[in-house]
Design goal:
Layout lengths: L14 E5 L2 E4 L4 E4 L2 H4 L8 H11 L12 H13 L4 E5 L2 H18 L7 E5 L8 H7 L2 H4 L9 E4 L4 H7 L4 E6 L2 E2 L5 E2 L2 H14 L2 E5 L23 E4 L10 E5 L1 H4 L15 H14 L4 H22 L4 E7 L2 E6 L3 H12 L1 E2 L1 E3 L3 E4 L7 H27 L2
Parallel strand pairs: 3-15, 5-6, 5-7, 7-10, 10-11
Antiparallel strand pairs: 1-2, 2-3, 4-12, 8-9, 11-12, 13-14, 14-17, 16-17
Helix pairs in contact: 2-10, 3-10, 11-13, 12-13
Length: about 400
């Protein structure tokens, strides 16, 4: 019996090593990884530049504390500021912590302005922002809230895509709008560019902050550095994680100067956030993601994945109901129970995928994926659907 909490419905499959888009189980079986640790392994497995950076950093200083200057942290923050809308960065260990910082920053901004009554954040149904008490309240999903007492106050939820509903939710307590440009866990739903632009305009009109959760859809996954760039807007605050460390625990909250100004000593902190080891890896990841041609490659592969999935949907309309997502955060809504289908893909076809809300199969390959890898993965999906057809035929004939 495991000594671990029983919070995960774990497969017994365990991996020994990885290389590129492949993982190798302890028995030597090879798996095609379109899971990426839930969009974390942006550069795949065993990237030489990341391995080298981690080894070099491990021979220096692993951890000090944020009461001291950390040169690798300063460098990573400066590079993120230069590449984004932001003027200031706070480093965390995870996406949930990055969202907690974003929520606190938004609320404290208005407190410092002498408007402490403005603390309510308008968020969206189908969203997922983390597992802390604050972020499950922000997500508003009853399944994640159940059993943990009264939800943290200060969040209102409306359906995504409805600007009129967002405007109707604005009230004297409102301080911000929080949204994922592409919902991951909730069902791989990409927000239309017009909706994102409408949210920016509403926030400007009512003096609200626009807070983006790009934990899963950011860091190149959609073919731009951040997903909001497709709509031509900029946020006031943005939470980042997953791909930023490409497997090493790291997250960040980015903000404009005017919004970050109130976050002075004593307002927030983290023991491990942005330590030397994490930021050495973070800088190595950024080297790769911002190198010439990298994001263009991701964009091309996202388009090819979408094309191949469209062909799959035409071939198996009885199983593929809808195509969703953006770039290499892709999904198909299917008729077979997604949890069972994910297990079938893993067991019978050695393809690793992930389920999402609304019975969506989520495809999250490393950003280094090639079209040959995509064709192989979609071929495995086709084989799995064909097997379902054959099983249905056998049942119908009583064979």
């Amino acid at each position: 019996m495991s000594a671990l909490y029983g919070t995960y419905a774990r497969s017994e499959l365990a991996f020994e090593r990885g290389e590129g888009v492949r993982l190798y189980a302890q028995d030597g079986t090879t798996y095609l990884d379109f899971h990426s640790g839930i969009a974390v392994n942006a550069l795949g497995h065993g990237d030489p530049h990341l391995v080298s950076a981690l080894k070099a950093a491990a021979e220096k200083v692993w951890h000090t504390s944020n009461v001291f200057t950390i040169p690798e942290q300063e460098r990573l923050a400066r590079r993120l500021v230069e590449a984004t809308f932001a003027d200031a960065v706070f480093f965390t260990n995870s996406g949930a912590e990055a969202l907690e910082c974003a929520i606190k920053t938004a609320r404290h901004h208005f407190f410092a302005k002498g408007e402490p009554e403005r603390y309510e954040i308008i968020a969206f149904t189908g969203s997922f922002h983390g597992r802390t008490l604050g972020t499950i309240a922000a997500g508003g999903n009853p399944h994640y809230l159940e059993g943990f007492g009264p939800p943290l106050a200060g969040f209102a939820h409306v359906a995504p895509g409805d600007l009129a509903a967002v405007e109707a939710a604005v009230n004297p307590a409102s301080c911000a709008v929080l949204i994922e440009p592409v919902q991951g866990e909730g069902g791989v739903t990409a927000m239309p560019a017009e909706f994102m632009r409408g949210l920016r305009e509403l926030c400007d009109r009512y003096g609200l902050l626009l807070v983006l959760d790009e934990v899963q859809c950011g860091y190149g996954r959609t073919g731009r550095f951040f997903a909001h760039e497709w709509s031509g807007i900029t946020p006031d605050i943005m939470a980042v994680a997953k791909g930023i460390g490409a497997g090493f625990p790291l997250g960040a909250c980015l903000a404009t100067a005017r919004v970050a100004a109130s976050m002075v000593p004593g307002t927030h902190g983290s023991t491990y956030g942005g330590n030397p080891l994490a930021c050495a890896v973070g800088n190595a990841v950024l080297d790769r993601v911002l190198e010439p041609g990298f994001l263009e490659h991701v964009d091309r592969m996202g388009q090819r994945l979408a094309w191949h999935l469209a062909q799959l949907a035409q071939r198996f309309p009885q199983y593929v109901l809808e195509q969703r997502g953006k770039g290499l955060l892709a999904g198909i809504r299917i008729t077979p129970p997604v949890r069972d289908f994910v297990a079938r893909l893993r067991r019978d076809h050695h393809l690793l995928c992930q389920g999402a809300g609304d019975n969506v199969l989520r495809l999250l390959p490393p950003l280094i994926v090639t079209e040959a890898d995509i064709e192989e993965a979609v071929g495995k999906l086709a084989d799995a659907f064909t097997a379902l057809d054959q099983e249905a035929a056998s049942l119908a004939t009583g064979a």
